[in-house]
Amino acid sequence: MNWEQPAPELSPATRPNAAGAGREALKALISGLGEKAFRGGQLFEGLYVQRWTSWDQFSTFSKALRERLEAEVDLTWPAIRESRTAEDGATKHVFRLGDGMEVEGVHMPYADRTTLCISSQVGCAMGCTFCATGQMGIRRNLGAAEIVGQVVTMLNHHHHPAGLPVNLVFMGMGEPLHNLAQVMEAFEILTDPKGLAIPPRRITLSTSGLVPGIQRLGSFERRPRLAVSLNATTDAYRNRIMPVNRAWNLEALSACLQAFPLGRGERITLEYVLLHGVTDSAEDARRLADYAKGFPSKVNLIPFNEHEGAGYQSPTEATLDLFGRVLSQNGIPVMVRRSRGQEVGGACGQLVRGSEAEDLEADASAQ
Ligand code: SAH
Ligand code: SF4
Question: Do 23-72 and 79-366 have matching folds?
């Protein structure tokens, strides 16, 4: 299987769209209208500091320029088609993109920060057996603007106050290392000190363990933090639930993580989804602890979020407790991450797949 296979490219837009564009593209756009280049900087700040959503809000521009932009340039962010808020305050959004395809993002409010979970692809090629997105297959990569668009749209929708920190995790739909160029372009826009200014250390990219992609990520001087979805502690089992393991097994992955250039105090996060009776034994916990000792790391335990057709179950609280204790006793920093917004389809891919199923039912009943 060729894991490097690129997903189909975006179809070219007919009109330029400023929403989600980078500094250089905005400068080129504004120069193309015969304006001075510094107006491109003002446009960037209007989009990402003020988070203006219509041209008439651009008070830094003359009326004539605002009218010209209105006539010639789109300012269209991804549309929210559906939102569901869970009891814990997490809101899951389904975004409809320009071509009608859909991805999801989650807004999680905390007292001292907001965490946003975003998608990097429509669907995913990796085929993990426990994952709703994996069951969709891959439709296409997202462009950088669509990645940035999810962030700006959620911040606007929830009236995010200036000054409250934002954490960003690429843990929605897709394998971000299959779309690294667009993810890194989005990263540059999101971290720009004269824009949204999200600090790089607050951004985490989660991968299923694509070794060449991890190596490429490590070659960037400015990059997000790395999280790896381990999910099993033997090759025999990881091969079964994560096909990527047949190309790069646990040993190859560990060698790659040991060589990954880390900053001062930086750790690699190992994510571990507990599947009841399958990957949640005390033996697994001990093997995971050994694996995690190979490089500076911390472990996030994620109880499996049940969804239709998955064929797996969540672990019991007692098992989860014991599993965590084995790791702590071995000196591994461990956190339990419950998928927030569980009852609204908290795990990756579930809301989009749910709505596709509803669309299909609607289509069928219309016939
Ligand atoms: N593709 C990337 C990032 C998106 S998935 C990756 O796999 O790392 C984000 C996390 O959700 C991964 O750790 C994945 O193992 C986990 N996950 C997927 N389906 C889940 C489910 N039903 N319940 C709990 N976690 C799930
Ligand atoms: Fe893709 Fe991640 Fe789901 Fe695996 S767990 S299918 S890599 S989104």
Answer: no
In angstroms, the CA 166 to CA 201 distance is: 11
Please give the full DSSP string across 78-101, using - where no structure is assigned. Answer: PEEEEEEE-TTS-EEEEEE-TTS-
Q: Tell me if 124 CB under 6 Å of ligand 2.
A: yes
Per-residue pLDDT for 349 more than 70?
A: no
Catalytic residues: 104, 348
- Helix, strand, coil fractions of the chain, as percent rounded to 5: 40, 20, 45
Using one digit for the tens of pLDDT, what is the confidence trace for 292-336?
A: 999 999 999 999 998 887 889 999 999 999 999 999 999 999 999
Q: Give the number of the atom of ligand 1 that is nearest the alpha carbon of residue 175.
A: 1
CA of 275 to the centre of ligand 1 (A): 12
Q: Give the per-residue pLDDT at 310.
A: 81
3-state secondary structure 135-188: HHCEEEECCHHHHHHHHHHHHHHCCCCCCCCEEEEECCCCCHHHHHHHHHHHHH
pTM: 0.91
Distance 242 CA to ligand 2 centre (A): 8
23-72: CATH architecture: Orthogonal Bundle (1.10)
Gyration radius from the chain CA atoms: 21
Residue 106 pLDDT > 60: yes
Instruction: Give CATH for domain 79-366.
Output: 3.20.20.70
Q: According to the model, what pLDDT value does residue 7 have?
A: 52
**Ligand 2 atom nearest 242 alpha carbon:** 4
Domain boundaries, the chain: 23-72, 79-366
Residue 339 DSSP symbol: P
As for ligand 1, residues whose beta carbon falls within 6 Å of it are: 124, 130-131, 171, 175, 206-208, 229, 231, 271, 273, 302, 304-305, 307, 339, 347-348
Ligand (nearest to CA of 304): 1
Asked if the model's pLDDT at residue 345 lies above 60, the reply is no
Out of 138, 229, 344, mutate this one to test ligand 1's pocket (max ligand atoms within 8 Å of CB): namely 229
- pLDDT for 321 equals 96
pLDDT (0 to 100) of residue 365 = 33
**E strand or H helix that includes residue 258:** helix 250-258
